[in-house]
Amino acid sequence: MQLNQYIEHVEDVYTREKSVDVSILRLDKLHPIVSGNKYFKLKYYFQEAIREGKTTLVTFGGYYSNHLHAAAYACREQGLQSIGCIKGLEPKVLNDTLKECIKYGMELKFIPPDSFAEFQKEFQKNIPPEVMMVPMGGYDARGMMGASEILNFDEAGSYDYIIAAGGTGTMAAGLLLKLDCNQKLILFSAVKNNHSLHKEIYALHENLIDKQNQLDIQFDFHFGGYGKSNQILFDAMNWFFDQHGIPTDFVYTGKMIAGFYTLLQHDYFKNGSNILLIHSGGLQGNRSIQSGKLNFQ
Hints:
Elements: E1 7-10, H1 13-17, E2 21-26, H2 38-51, E3 56-61, H3 66-78, E4 81-87, H4 96-103, E5 106-111, H5 113-125, E6 131-134, H6 141-148, E7 161-166, H7 170-178, E8 184-189, H8 197-202, E9 215-218, H9 231-244, H10 253-265, E10 274-279
Helix pairs in contact: 2-3, 2-6, 3-4, 6-7, 9-10
């Protein structure tokens, strides 16, 4: 896969004013359903499931999970049964994400939030032989190694900064693993008070702790928490779309864009810096936003 074909230049009044060169890797264009980083994070799970003759994939996520949505579709395409364990009580009305998971053949099980982590942990201890279990967000070495391939293109080493949004830290671990010693990863946490994220990222590979000076996690751009939003976020997403014609999602990439331009205006980056934004997909989640909030709905 020639990933450099998905790189687009981003130039506007702010990038010119601060004399930085900015590009965006449009992983959202890879596939209409299994878009963004999901293609990479799920890759090795599916290869293993098919190689070992698994019949069912069980995975975990939230109400607006792009991960569940992509996994459900991929399972249907690969002839696997799928079960999605949802963090939360069953709502009276399912959102579009969950409806499409069902359409793709996924069975949904709703788990109370206060017992969700323990449920996943216990399930992982006793996985039936016919089941491929994928943790939430693809969080383990297989998801990380898949995510590391996001930077498998020749120009990847030319960037001073790689910028992404994160939830479980799986993609971040993969990106950090691939960085050259002179590069830095800036991660915008989409989850409120997710201060264990450093530890969770370093736990995925023994070499990552040695790269801790190359990782900066920004915790102030969650806009209320995972899956939360407000008008300030929508304004940033709309401005970016109006300037560049690039849609973002309100769960992850919109928060990355809002955070990036805030850092840019506060002189975080040196003049002449070469910056790569990672568009990790997830646009399907925008369907839950009230009509008229976004210019590109």
